[in-house]
Write a structure and sequence with these properties.
The complex is a heterodimer of chains A (about 475) and B (about 500). Chain A is about 75% helix and about 0% strand. Chain A is an all-alpha fold and about 475 residues long. Chain A has one domain. In chain B, strands 1-2 form a two-stranded antiparallel ribbon. The chains are: A mainly alpha (about 475), B mainly alpha (about 500).
């Protein structure tokens, strides 16, 4: 048994168990002890995965069910970093919740689900990851039990999830029927020759199923509700971590299909174009900052999806995908970090004149939003640059053009936040939440800048990454 | 050294943002000092530049940045870039020193100006295609905040329109740049390599698409009719010195880009499309002049003449890129003329917009019909405006004439019909400037303007420098022509 191969995931699950046990025995006002345990867990898991990436070749393990490739490792590291930042955003936010110790255990379990999605090289393994990530996600979204908005967010998340998970299940079943195995490497070799209709149906169903986790069209409707209604740290986590796991999973499973008989490339390109356009057009007139960030996250996923149709056609596709989702994660966490720091204030009105009172918080939000637009030299610019290069190189120039148009549209609503933030005079805002949230927000903001200015080391890692099998 | 001229204004901007205690006066002096450094550095660069060299880019400095993408910190100049970078340094120094209402936030105003100077110089000095795009984009951010925060009228709407419009242009250009980049082998954004290897030569439709994307993107910034509609409101609502920068520096980014990217890097494909570009330029020339004639707003009128003048520059560039081997000298002349036009337009329109800013400072009114007879109370102002206006309409002995005569000679040789139509533009411009002078300075002086203050000493000094240069280029252009001609020769490909 290759325990070393999945040591990262095991650590996270074990950490969740430790948190659960410890918080049973601590007083109500000390429930925050879950946070340092969760942080330590993330730290150990990051170290174990980093060691694995440095020492082991990119290979399949557990009889082919688990991929230890660069793409999975990268996604796992980003998911763990996201989890750690979310943990740091949490203690003060939940300070009044007498039972919030469990929160950290749920976060860790949800992270384990997302990591499993990214690493799964077997369709049952993928289902396991999706279900683990979903069930914990519903609870995270509805964690404010007495807030109607939060419960509503959780309920919508659950309803969409329950429906689309069956699609995923059906898609996986079709694939199994066509290939006679759930293992990806054997599926890849036995699929050519399978019926085009079956495979196309499987591709569509799997895409819809994973679109739920991604927050992509047509299963994107939960994103704005979760962004607005869920506890702000949960919104930060749920609009980042599962998406990262899911996009690697989608890239991995679609790459198995023979592109001669199944049009999965145009399918993914269509989903990408629709997702970015729907996200952007709906974001245009939102007056609620968190809802706007939700729609913007839909559009960002649309950009990330641009890499999938050109996988295997352009050598830049995988590095572009990995880099862009990292840039997106850093930007989204910085933006939601600001929301947490402002105690969840969400009306556009509350952000007027923020730059005058809280220049650093305003700067973090501006950096995050400009990075979403793709203004150089921030991370989002480098990410989009790589994506555009890959799509043009891979013969999908029209998709790059659609993305360019969308970028111009998106500038409009990002400026609807940035302009009053910097130019207006507003009332003195609420006191900020606390130090650990500030540290987490700053870390995310610094990452947005560093990823853009010093992109080279990340690109090197991205160039070496592979997507098995 | 070139790197320093980009870094120093940026450092000045950071300093101004960080130093919270600084009062407005000190902030202005810090800004003037920070803009003086690049100006001095440009003079040094001018001295060290070798006009007889056969290398296109000189004074190169480079450092690796993202080697796996072929991106590097590459700066260097040819004669055209050096001329425009010097103009940029000079105009920023003038615009920062020029008195303006900073609406209680002097530090931020000057910080944004310095930031904008840094990226503008970066754009003209870089020899890396991706950095070119980066600076192109960042100039939009700087200009957006300057207009939105310190403009008048409806500054936010205007600034938003400016940002959306020009970002659309720059993204189209980015697609074109990437299309070009993907043809290089090994992949590189190094301009010198791309110009030498001409990666898209003979690529047919693909080259045409890339060229189209590049030209459309740059045309938005230039701007050419019909993608010019962002320009007049941006000029009218921006504060005077910012308008001077917008017209004097930012518009040049479009025409400079046309020379640097499509003309130099895709010369074969460019030649196929040059005539079409010449037609669009001619339309811009005539349309810009006609619409300018119809404006009663002082700044809108100057703004539309910018469209007219940038049309001459684009016409010269189109002629330079035309497929006409037997007209090599005419094409070289046209390219040199186009570059001189850019410099001259920067100085002249920069001066005119600074003057418009002075009008706003005094009366908060741009309507020409509300003025008259100002020659009486404001002599210096009258004198400065008259010279700048005459230069703009192309009076011999002033800078505009030197530029336009070369463009027209070149164009008559290659596209005589376009030149004939474009001459109309000259006539209309003459009419509209004379009418403007008449309305402002002659006729009856309205009673509320009896106490109209003449130019202050600082205003006179700054406009004096700009006008002295306009006259100098008009009377003795040799020093400027020598600098540019060597590069034109290399680009047009004649001995």
């Amino acid at each position: 048994m290759d325990i070393g191969g999945i040591a990262g995931e095991l650590t996270v699950v074990a950490g969740a168990a430790v948190v659960l046990v410890v918080v049973l025995f601590v007083r109500r006002d000390r429930q925050w002890v879950g946070a340092p345990i969760a942080l330590a867990t993330c730290g150990i898991a990051v170290a174990l995965i980093a060691i694995r990436l440095a020492t082991r070749p990119q290979e399949l393990t557990w009889h082919g069910a688990w991929a230890l490739d660069g793409a999975a490792g990268w996604a796992e590291l980003v998911i763990l970093a996201t989890t750690a930042i979310t943990v740091a955003l949490s203690p003060q936010w939940f300070a009044t919740d007498a039972r919030h110790g469990e929160w950290y255990a749920l976060l860790l379990l949800s992270a384990a689900g997302a990591m499993t999605m990214a690493s799964a090289a077997d369709s049952l393994e993928l289902l396991l990851g999706v279900l683990l990530s979903s069930t914990t996600g519903y609870v995270l979204a509805a964690y404010h039990r007495r807030s109607a908005l939060s419960v509503e967010a959780g309920a919508k998340y659950f309803l969409v999830g329950a429906l689309t998970n069956t699609f995923l299940l059906a898609g996986v079943a079709l694939l199994f029927g066509a290939a006679g195995t759930t293992l990806y490497d054997r599926t890849a070799t036995s699929l050519p020759g399978a019926s085009t209709v079956t495979l196309t149906a499987a591709a569509v169903l799997v895409t819809i199923g994973l679109a739920f986790k991604l927050g992509a069209v047509p299963a994107h409707t939960w994103v704005p509700d979760v962004a607005q209604g869920a506890p702000a740290p949960a919104a930060a986590f749920l609009t980042v971590a599962p998406k990262i796991g899911a996009i690697v999973a989608l890239a991995r499973i679609l790459s198995l299909l023979p592109d001669t008989s199944v049009g999965w490339r145009p399918l993914a390109a269509g989903v990408a174009a629709l997702t970015m356009t729907v996200g952007n057009l709906t974001a245009l007139w939102q007056d609620d900052v968190r809802r706007l960030l939700g729609w913007s996250s839909v559009s960002q996923v649309g950009y990330a999806l641009m890499a999938i149709p050109v996988l295997g056609r352009s050598p830049q596709a995988l590095p572009a995908l990995l880099f862009f989702i990292t840039a997106y994660a850093a930007g989204q966490l910085a933006a939601f970090g600001v929301v947490v720091q402002l105690r969840g204030r969400t009306s556009l009105e509350d952000y007027r004149g923020l730059a005058r009172w809280r220049p650093w918080i305003a700067a973090a939000l501006i950096v995050a939003l400009l990075s979403f637009v793709g203004i150089p030299p921030l991370a989002g610019f480098t990410g989009k640059l790589l994506l555009f290069t890959a799509t043009i190189d891979g013969g999908y120039a029209w998709l790059a053009a659609v993305a360019a148009i969308n970028t111009v549209v998106s500038l409009f609503y990002y400026l609807r936040i940035i302009t009053p933030l910097t130019l207006d005079h507003g009332p003195r805002p609420v006191p900020v939440l606390g130090r650990s949230a500030a540290a987490a927000t700053s870390l995310a903001t610094v990452l947005v800048i560093t990823l853009g200015v010093a992109a080279q080391p990340f690109l090197d890692a991205g160039q070496n990454a592979r997507l098995l099998p | 050294m070139l790197t320093a001229s980009i870094v120093v204004p940026f450092a000045g901007a950071v300093l101004l943002v960080a130093a919270r205690r600084l009062d407005g006066r000190t902030a202005r002096w810090v800004a003037v000092a920070a803009t003086a450094v690049p100006l001095v550095l440009m003079v040094v660069a001018w001295v060290r530049y070798d006009t007889s060299s056969t290398a296109l880019f000189q004074l190169n400095e480079r450092a690796p940045w993202i080697p796996s993408l072929g991106v590097g910190w590459r700066v260097g100049v040819d004669g055209i870039a050096l001329a425009l970078a010097s103009l940029t340094a000079l105009l920023f120094c003038a615009a920062v020193a020029y008195p303006v209402d900073t609406k209680g936030q002097p530090r931020h105003y000057y910080a944004w100006m310095l930031f904008l100077e840094s990226v503008s110089l970066g754009l003209f000095l870089t020899t890396d295609l991706l950095l070119f795009y980066v600076f192109f984009d960042l100039s939009l951010v700087g200009m957006y905040f300057l207009i939105a925060r310190w403009g008048h009228g409806q500054p936010r709407v205007t600034a938003l329109k400016f940002f959306l419009y020009t970002l659309a242009g720059s993204l189209v250009m980015l697609l074109g740049i990437l299309g070009l980049y993907l043809e290089t082998d090994p992949l590189t954004f190094d301009m010198a390599t791309i110009i030498r290897t001409q990666p898209l030569a003979g690529a047919g439709l693909r080259a045409g698409m890339v060229l189209l994307a590049l030209i459309v993107g740059l045309a938005v910034k230039t701007p050419l009719v019909p993608v010019h509609t962002w320009l007049p409101p941006a000029h009218v609502d921006a504060p005077g010195p910012v308008s001077a920068i917008l017209a004097g520096v930012l518009l040049k980014m479009g025409t400079f880009g046309l020379i640097r990217i499509p003309l130099a890097m895709l010369s074969d494909t460019f030649a196929d499309w040059a005539f079409l570009l010449a037609i669009v330029a001619t339309i811009s020339i005539v349309y810009g002049a006609l619409v300018a004639l119809g404006q009663t707003n002082l700044k809108a009128r100057i703004a539309y003449t910018s469209i007219n003048h940038m049309g001459y520059a684009v016409l010269g560039i189109a002629v330079a890129g035309a497929m006409a081997a037997d007209h090599a000298d005419a094409r070289r002349l046209a390219l040199t003329g186009a570059t001189v036009e850019m410099v001259a337009h920067g100085l002249i329109t920069g001066a005119l917009f600074l003057i418009a800013g002075s009008f706003w400072q005094r009366t908060q009114d741009y309507d020409l019909d509300h003025y008259g007879g100002l020659a009486q109370p404001a002599r210096t102002l009258t004198f400065a405006t008259t010279i700048a206006a005459f230069a703009s309409l192309g009076l011999p002995g002033l800078a505009g004439f030197v530029a336009e005569v070369q463009i027209f000679i070149g164009t008559f040789a290659v596209y005589p019909a376009a030149a004939a139509v474009a001459l109309l533009g000259l006539l209309i411009t003459a009419a509209l400037f004379l009418q403007m002078l008449q309305k402002l300075f002659f006729g009856e002086l309205p009673p509320e303007h009896h106490q109209f203050p003449d130019l202050a000493r600082s205003e006179t000094a700054i406009l004096g420098v700009l006008i002295a240069l306009i006259v100098l280029i008009g009377v003795y252009p040799r020093w400027l022509l020598d600098l540019i001609d060597g590069t034109s020769r290399l680009l047009v490909g004649t001995g």
